[in-house]
Every structure is written in structure tokens, then in C-alpha cells.
Design a protein that fits this description.
heterodimer; B: mainly alpha; two-stranded antiparallel ribbon; 9 helices; 3% strand; flat
């Protein structure tokens, strides 16, 4: 009963009203990115936003509904991928509870963890529903890896591990930038406003640290990745 | 940014009159059968003998075909070609392209996968063309889906067009100030923030007002709410739903039995 009560506490009226706006943010920013022809998706900024200030369950719900509405209105191809969006919201919420949305460099780590989740979650859908090679551009990488003698699951997984981090780290950073821009009076109306401690001052140092963490993570990641591939 | 939101087309037809839940049951039955049915070619059979005729019965045949061609053919065409060429294994080579063999077995697998996706997405498309999203949500709310969830979906349907208008305005305004939305990657990345920030902060400010407004209208009241729009659920709908469930159980059971 404790769990149900704590979930209920996350869903106050502000949360319920924020969720539709967050879904609309997901979709509209997704369309901006298409217009600007950027090589990322950035279609879960709203989901991460809700997850941070209203908890993992609200984040998971936002992700799920976001995909359903994307399917209802724009492209039914979005439906099968809803578990990925669900887990992105859920994991982002736990990252926030663990205190990863309190400074720029921690947000990079949160984005990285979200990326790993997304990569793991989309693999079974791609393999069992779409037969491994899906309709996205990154399938060329999958196809290449299969030709080098890799089995299907590991080829799809490697492809996802390759493409997700950039997108999800950028998503987490943008969501945090938005949160930093909101007043603390506004944030205080949400159930988990304590997840964002906006540290004032020393922003340049913070940003430099964030960049260093990104570089370090990417380098480490590339190293592990190359080791696994070869 | 988009000419038309939602796929729904208002027409008079037996499919339009059907209860939304019945159509939803139909969609999930078709998906289950296409992916888990006893034979692999069931997916293409379902598309040609069930989904396509139903779309014409619903008087949305033309729209169904054009939406399928626009949204689905590129996806499944790409999938079919890529899988035919790049899947490993297979014995009987049909054609050789560069270093790759296109084998009969792989073309077969690619075809099955492509038709399954076709059946899955096109059955959703049929539902969307004949059912208004808010009709679906209010029917589901009446059957026990929590009220706030259906509020969230219907409210998004209202907010989204407004926000897209706002987004287009911001885009135009920033371009008029000299924001470059074309050019190299760095320029395009730098263009993202001036577009996103006004849009996001503007719409987040509205959240607080809307929360107060719906709280004043008993949003949090635990009592059963009445609905302005009543959605029919005729006895025949109930019979169709049970019929579909039986068909699915029978065909999935026959698969287990055949093994």
C-alpha cells in the first residue's frame, strides 16, 4: 500500500496538467528537429521533464501516452515502440531521485543511463517484431554488422548502443536547461521539485566539467565498444 | 506545420457505427493472428481479405490506400529490400549483388516480416480513419480507464494544434530576426535553442492556470462523472467482440496443437 500511496502523491493536479503539455513538447520539438535536419530525434524532452519533477511513474505514463498520441495523430508506426518511451520516462525518474539532475555533469551521466535503457528496450522490439532490420537509417549499421558474422541480437544491440547516447545525453541536457530556466516558485508546485537543486553561480566551471565528463564517458564508451566489436 | 491533425474521416458506415472497443478488439486480434497465427502467410491473407474490404465497407477505401501508400509502403519497402539483401544464411541463391547473395529463404523471411508490419500498422490505420480519438477515449473512460488518463489524451489533442501554430509563429519570428535555419550542422544546432525556449516556457506558464481551472471544476472528485457524448454499445458489438476472442483463441490453440 505504501507504494500505491507514494505513486498517488506523484500525480497531483499540476502533474496531470503538465503531462499533455509535455507530450505536445515531445512532438513539436521532434518536428523542429526534423525541420532543422539534425541527426538526432530529441523526441523525449517532455518525458524527461515530467520524470524529473513528477517522478518515475508520471514519466513512464508520459512516455507511453506520447507514443500512443504520436501514433493516433501523425504516424501509426510509433505504436510498437511505446515500451521504449515508457522505460525512458521511468529510468529518468529514478535518475532524478538518485540526484542526477542537480548539476550539468551529473545530467550527462543520467542521459547516458537513459540511453543504455533505450538501447536495451528497443532491441527485442526490433528483433522480434521487425525481424532485426527496421526501417530506420541506422539499419545499415546493423546490416553491416550482420555481414561481418555477428548474430542478429548482438548486431541490433551494438547498433542501438552506437546511436542512442548522443540523442539521449542531448535530451537530458536540454530538459535540464529548461528546468534551470523555470522559477523555483513554479517548480515547487510539482510533487518532486526537490529533485532539481538549481545551483547558482559558477556556471562556466560547471559547464566545463560537464563537457569533460561527456568527453570522458564517450572515450570510455568507445573503448569498451571497440573491444566488444572486435 | 501539418495540414490535418488526426486521421479521422466523418462518414456514414457500419464500421463508423461500431463501438470503439469493438474496433480496438479487432485491431489486436488481427495483430495477434498476424504475428502468432498458425501459418506465416496469414498476415498478407488478413490484409487482403479482412482489412482492405473493411476499409471499403467503411467508405474510406481511397483514404486508406493513400495513407497506406504514404506512411507504410516506404517503411515496409525499405524493410523488405534491406532484409532480403542483408539477412545471413539461406541456401538457394537467386541473384548475386556484389559480394552478397539474395537467397530465396531470405526473401521469404523478409516478405513475411514486411507483411506482418503491414497488417499491424494498417489495422491501426483502419481504426484511426473510422474512430475519433476522443470517442475512443470517452468509451474507454466509461469502461474503467481512469478519468485523468483520458483527460490527458483528449487535452493533448486540443493543446497540440495550438502549440503547432505557436511553433510556426516562433519559427517565422526568429527567421525574421535573422536566425539561420539552414546551413552547416553547427548553425542548425545553434538554431534549436532560440526556437525551443520561447515555445516551452510559454506553454509551461499556462500549466498553472489550467491546473487551477480544472481543480475548480471537480477534477479531483472521486465521484462518477457523466459524459456529454454517449457512445453506443449495441448487443451485436458485444457478440462481435466475443466472436473475435474465440477466433483468436481457436487459431492460436490450433498452432500449439499442430506442433
Amino acid at each position: 500500500m505504501n507504494l500505491i500511496n507514494s505513486i498517488k502523491k506523484d500525480f497531483n493536479t499540476m502533474t496531470w496538467v503538465l503531462i499533455p503539455v509535455a507530450i505536445a513538447i515531445n512532438i513539436v520539438i521532434g518536428q523542429f528537429v526534423v525541420l532543422l535536419k539534425l541527426p538526432v530525434f530529441l523526441d523525449s524532452i517532455g518525458t524527461v521533464l515530467v520524470a524529473v519533477i513528477a517522478g518515475p511513474w508520471a514519466g513512464a505514463l508520459t512516455g507511453t501516452l506520447s507514443n500512443i498520441i504520436w501514433g493516433l495523430l501523425i504516424d501509426p508506426n510509433a505504436f510498437p515502440w511505446f515500451p521504449v518511451a515508457l522505460l525512458i520516462g521511468f529510468v529518468a525518474g529514478w535518475c532524478a531521485i538518485a540526484g542526477l539532475f542537480k548539476s550539468w555533469w551529473r545530467v550527462v551521466i543520467a542521459g547516458f543511463l537513459i540511453a543504455i535503457t533505450a538501447a536495451l528496450a528497443s532491441t527485442p522490439i526490433a528483433v522480434y517484431l521487425y525481424g532485426g532490420i527496421t526501417a530506420s537509417g541506422s539499419s545499415f549499421i546493423t546490416a553491416f554488422l550482420i555481414q561481418t558474422g555477428r548474430d542478429m541480437v548482438s548486431a541490433v544491440l551494438s547498433t542501438n548502443f552506437l546511436v542512442e547516447p548522443v540523442d539521449k545525453i542531448a535530451t537530458a541536457l536540454l530538459a535540464f536547461a529548461i528546468l534551470e530556466g523555470l522559477s523555483s516558485r513554479y517548480l515547487a508546485r510539482f510533487p518532486r521539485s526537490e529533485n532539481v537543486a538549481v545551483a547558482k553561480g559558477g556556471r562556466t566551471t560547471q559547464l566545463i566539467v560537464a563537457v569533460l565528463v561527456t568527453v570522458f564517458l564517450v572515450a570510455l564508451y568507445a573503448l569498451v565498444f571497440v573491444r566488444l566489436i572486435s | 506545420m501539418r495540414d490535418r491533425l488526426s486521421f479521422y474521416i466523418l462518414r456514414e458506415s457500419p464500421i463508423h457505427r461500431m463501438n470503439p472497443l469493438t474496433k480496438l478488439t479487432l485491431v489486436f486480434s488481427l495483430i495477434l493472428l498476424a504475428f502468432l497465427g498458425p501459418v506465416e502467410w496469414l498476415a498478407i491473407l488478413l490484409f487482403t481479405t479482412v482489412i482492405l474490404p473493411l476499409s471499403f465497407l467503411a467508405h474510406v477505401g481511397r483514404e486508406f490506400l493513400s495513407a497506406t501508400a504514404r506512411l507504410l509502403l516506404p517503411v515496409i519497402g525499405f524493410l523488405f529490400v534491406m532484409q532480403s539483401i542483408f539477412l545471413p544464411g539461406g541456401g538457394t541463391a537467386l541473384v548475386q549483388v556484389w559480394v552478397l547473395d539474395i537467397t530465396l529463404e531470405n526473401v521469404n523471411i523478409a516478405f513475411v516480416n514486411a507483411t506482418r508490419i503491414l497488417t499491424m500498422i494498417s489495422s491501426f490505420l483502419l481504426l484511426l480513419l473510422t474512430t475519433h480519438p476522443s470517442a475512443l477515449m470517452s468509451d474507454l473512460a466509461r469502461r474503467g480507464v481512469p478519468g485523468p488518463i483520458s483527460y490527458t489524451v483528449t487535452s493533448t489533442l486540443q493543446i497540440l494544434p495550438q502549440m503547432q501554430v505557436k511553433a510556426a509563429t516562433i519559427m517565422d519570428a526568429q527567421r525574421a530576426r535573422g536566425l539561420e535555419t539552414q546551413g552547416n550542422l553547427m548553425k542548425r544546432i545553434r538554431a534549436l535553442l532560440p526556437l525551443v525556449a520561447p515555445l516551452v516556457f510559454g506553454s509551461l506558464v499556462d500549466v498553472e492556470e489550467r491546473a487551477i481551472a480544472i481543480e475548480a471544476r471537480a477534477f479531483n472528485s472521486p465521484r462518477q462523472k457523466t459524459s456529454l457524448v454517449e457512445i453506443d454499445d449495441r448487443p451485436i458489438d458485444r457478440r462481435i467482440r466475443w466472436g473475435l476472442i474465440l477466433v483468436v483463441i481457436f487459431l492460436l490453440g490450433s498452432r500449439l496443437w499442430l506442433k
